[in-house]
Prior knowledge:
Layout: E1 15-17, E2 23-26, E3 34-38, H1 50-53, E4 61-65, H2 72-86, E5 93-98, E6 101-107, E7 115-118, H3 119-124, H4 143-150, E8 155-156, H5 171-185, E9 196-200, E10 203-206, H6 222-230, H7 239-242, H8 262-272, H9 274-285, H10 289-297, H11 307-327
Parallel strand pairs: 1-5, 8-10
Antiparallel strand pairs: 2-3, 3-4, 4-6, 5-6, 7-9, 9-10
Helix pairs in contact: 5-8, 5-9, 5-11, 6-11, 8-9
Protein name: Phosphatidylinositol kinase
Amino acid sequence: MNIDSIIPQAQHFPIECIDNNAWLSQEQLGTKAKFWLCTESDNCTESDNNDDKNSDPPPPRLFKIGRPNTGENWAEKITCELCALLGLPHAHYELAVWRRQKGVLTESFVPRNGRLVLGNELLSAIHTNYPASQNYKVTDHTFGRIFNYLNNDKILLPFSWMQPGAAIQDAADVFVGYLLLDAWIANQDRHHENWGVIHFCGRIYLAPTFDHAASLGQNETDAKRQRRLTTPAPDPGSINQFVKKAKSAIYSKKIDQKPLSTIEAFERAASKRPEAAKFWLQQLVDISKAQCANLFQRLPPDTEISPTAIEFAMKLLELNKQRLLSEATL
């Protein structure tokens, strides 16, 4: 597939060059290197200047370094832009480099004096012996527990996010959209530290969706991508079969050995909130192939994404869109 034949040349996404003298403090959450950033331009320190006392400092920014020989950086950036097309509340990511290390830069979505509370902390406060510190194969992280928690009028729509329509009334309706996103991009990382709420000024808000680097087949080699692209369906080695293997990190029951697939997780949510599911599916319908291709074309050469990786990710999006529209029963 030649992307240039779909749309004209687009302007590249910028790459922010972070000051080598930036002060970085390590973020403990997650498995990859990430640092909170403070530079002179961020003005992160308290100032004695009276003019500054009346204005809040800018939100802190997090720099995440992509793992070598993966496409984590471009996957995070592309998914951020796909979220915007869907109309989902999401963390905003920009490509960045610090001391020759490539990554993405994201501004904190937590308001000043607010607190992000992640899913593992939320569920462990409700369910006895919930394994909050476990990182993998958390079978206690079930769809029922997540949805029962979110199905609560006290949990508001994401902070400063505008309600897109009458079909989206509460946090659970928005989370349906997060699960549609996961199914579309083959995000296999919706574990219990990749969703949460924000406590702010005595209220509780659903957090925007964040951390989507494990998506779009970014960790596949070009050799495997090419082989899957050229293997006809329904051969097990084809991309048509590959996209069906995406798992959600959400389980149906705690006794299960395997998590729900990303499509199954969305279908569960759709059965609970059919009107919300219809809304997010229509949002997906309205996104064209050309719009998706435009995003990949805007990745600068320094992103190190190959034409094969682009073709593979585009085909993955196309097939998963077809599956969502044909398999999701409402």
